Amino acid sequence: MDNLHHIVVVGGGAGGLELVTSLGNKLGKKRKARITLVDAGLTHVWKPLLHEVASGSLDASANEINYRAHARKHHYEFQLGRMRGLDRKAKKLVIASFHDEEGVEVVPERHVSYDTLVIAVGSTANDFGTPGAQDNCLFLDSLRQARRFHNLMLNAFLRKNHEALEGQDHILNISIIGAGATGVELAAELRLASRELPVYGMNHLQSSDVSISVIEAADRILPALPGRLSAAATRELEHQHVKVLTGQPVSEVRESSIIMKDGTELPSEMTIWAAGIKAPAFLAELDGLEVNKSNQLVVEQTLQTTQDADIYAFGDCAACPQPDSDRPVPPRAQAAHQQAAALFKTLCNRLGGGEAVPFVYNDHGSLINFSRYTTVGNLMGNLSGRSMYIEGKVARLFYVSLYRMHQVALHGFVRTGIIWLMDKISRAMQPRLKLH
């Protein structure tokens, strides 16, 4: 194995895990290359589902993929740890030491050699330096953060239920800063939770006692999506009694309130930051690799970094150009999925002395899911060549299919079918909301 071409992929998110799965099945299985995945966590959960984990409508344990088990089935290796540095001349990446929950070092800092390096470390929330955001906001960048949010939400509901029983003021104010897809979908999930939890014993707290606000600096929610989709989403949120505040930049986040740019103070006991993303800061210190102002690695259309042909980057952490456009490929799950497929072909060609495959992004549209209430979206590339607006059950079917496509890429059609059946059985037997 030491003599084989070593492809190291850093980041086991949607794109990174799909890529190592394909490479392992194609090259690792036949001993044509050695494939290694590096990630700071032990398990994978599809990031677009984290808001459902946070609200409790999805049980993460039933949807997690253990990297070690998956690696064994798909012929790649797994290294636990967080990348923190790079030596391009020696072709080695530095993995930080790993500590347990008590701070005891389990594995020391180490170096991993590579022949081809792929960086797919995703993105984190961008608070734009807003005072108080880091100290007083909750974030949904990782499974750990989503689980922490869920526990805090349950405790907040329990506290307010007791205050209602005692005849005290018991309004719970929840604010979501940022009305992109995550913020909008999270608001709908939280409204569902406020209606479901009284069914499971918190019957002194009514859904109307939970005030949910979505705050957006732009003049409309979902500013990156078509206006018709934004208008439909606004109507649905208002129908679910979610306050929509647009054209409202946040200037400061305090422990129990939010200060708007115009000086207005809004009460908020739970504040979630869902506005903007940026690539991890360590990318700006990777031995001279070019980055933009959002810390994204600048890559060619082949996904090769501009400073090193042996290093590739894709997904949210990469700024990839689009033909006939001055904007890079948008940081979306469908883009990472398409890039993983293109990069798989490029790396297979690379081993055989072939050409790299230029990446061309195909926008298939956008779908916004309002929990169990409805789904709205637009599909691109239909027979008319234009965007087609859809909603209701048809849109929900397309939305669910996105996750199933991700599962097919990781498990194949047969196993995905079995997983789908198990999900149906689990939903029939378990509470509609995760209660712990």
TrEMBL record:
<keyword id="KW-0285">Flavoprotein</keyword>
<dbReference type="InterPro" id="IPR036188">
    <property type="entry name" value="FAD/NAD-bd_sf"/>
</dbReference>
<dbReference type="GO" id="GO:0008137">
    <property type="term" value="F:NADH dehydrogenase (ubiquinone) activity"/>
</dbReference>
<dbReference type="InterPro" id="IPR045024">
    <property type="entry name" value="NDH-2"/>
</dbReference>
<feature type="domain" description="FAD/NAD(P)-binding">
    <location>
        <begin position="6"/>
        <end position="340"/>
    </location>
</feature>
<dbReference type="GO" id="GO:0003954">
    <property type="term" value="F:NADH dehydrogenase activity"/>
</dbReference>
<comment type="similarity">
    <text>Belongs to the NADH dehydrogenase family.</text>
</comment>
<protein>
    <submittedName>
        <fullName>FAD-dependent oxidoreductase</fullName>
    </submittedName>
</protein>
<dbReference type="Pfam" id="PF07992">
    <property type="entry name" value="Pyr_redox_2"/>
</dbReference>
<keyword id="KW-0520">NAD</keyword>
<keyword id="KW-0274">FAD</keyword>
<dbReference type="InterPro" id="IPR023753">
    <property type="entry name" value="FAD/NAD-binding_dom"/>
</dbReference>
<keyword id="KW-0560">Oxidoreductase</keyword>
